[in-house]
Every structure is written in structure tokens, then in C-alpha cells.
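Worked example 2:
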Amino acid sequence: MNSLFMIVELILAIFLERSTKKDSSHSSKPSSQTSKDESASGHPGSNGKGNSENKNQASNSRVNETVTISPVLTCEVCAQDLSEVPCNDHERRTKIDIIFEKVIDHVDAEIKRCPACGTTVKGVFPPDMHGPLQYGDGLKAFVINLLIGQMVALNRVQKLVKSMIGGVIAEASLLKFVLRLHQALASWESKLSRRYSIHRRSTSMKPLSGLT
């Protein structure tokens, strides 16, 4: 359990922690001495102030857009045939919906027996398929975002993923997603810890080892 907390603190320190100046909203500092926090992201208001929103679409999402023409065949007043009359303009109405799609990729490796020497030869699997079952980066990123970014309880994440993919992922496997992220960032963390830096914080989190 301690190792889990260590991983969570590490990822929070890397991705989520923001340098926040003390102000009157969370300290005893009077409002007259509070300066503007430039590190905070603004929210666009009615007068257009604040930073613009990030409108970039997720890289693993897909848009299925269709256009259906509703033809005018007859006049609704005099019943005149309008099928051959050219269209003057269009009025568009749009409906946006979300359908969660589970993508399953099967790779069937051929198994053959060499007639010359009797050796059994098997086809080569892709390098990211190490066993009978593995999960893609999109699912892993979704789980890590829920556990670390949104602070959702582990059992609730497990139930949510089950409702989406129709299968249960063990809690140990969900935690391994976070652990593998920590391992992938180990070399970067090692380089960061050897650099000179100033640790300024207003939270109760412990500073990373090597930072001063």
C-alpha cells in the first residue's frame, strides 16, 4: 500500500501539481496584498476574458459524420409536384451523440510442421503482444486518468471499465498500468533529479528526492 501511495504522489508531482501563490482564498494573506496568479488557467467568461479553451480532439477518438437530405416532393399547400424543381437552400439540424466502441484486434499466428525436418514453426506476433490477452494504450490512459487525474476509487474504476468492455480487469492489473507509467518515467525522473531547481510549494506533499 505504501508503494501505491508513493506512485500516486510521484505522478501527481509530475503531472498535476501547480505552483500556486498564496492568496486570501486559502491563506491568511489579506486580499489587498494578493497578486494575480499567472499560473492559473483562466475561464472564458461572457466578456471574452480568460484563456481560450483547448479544442483539440483526443487522438484515439473517431468521428462518424453523416448527412441525410430530406427532400421536398410536393407543395404542402397546393400539392404541386416539386420533385423536378431545383432546391433554393437548405436548413440544417444536427444531433450529436456518443457511442462507446470496443476495438478488439485478434492476431492468429499460423503453426506449421516442416515436412523436411519435422520442426514446428509458429508465426511471429507483434512486439506489443506478449501474451494471450493485453490491453491497448487508450484503455490504459483512460484508467490512469480516472485513478490519478480524477481520483476515482479503484473498485469504481473497475466497475466502470467492466460496463464499457464487458469484462472485468483485476484491480492488480489496473494498478500495474500506473506502475508501468512510473517505470517508463524513471529515466526522465533520474535526469530531472540531477538538475538544479527550486522547489516552491504551498501543498503538504513531500518534495521529490534530489530536488532542493
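Residues 16-20 have pLDDT under 50 and may be disordered. Residues 127-198 form one domain.
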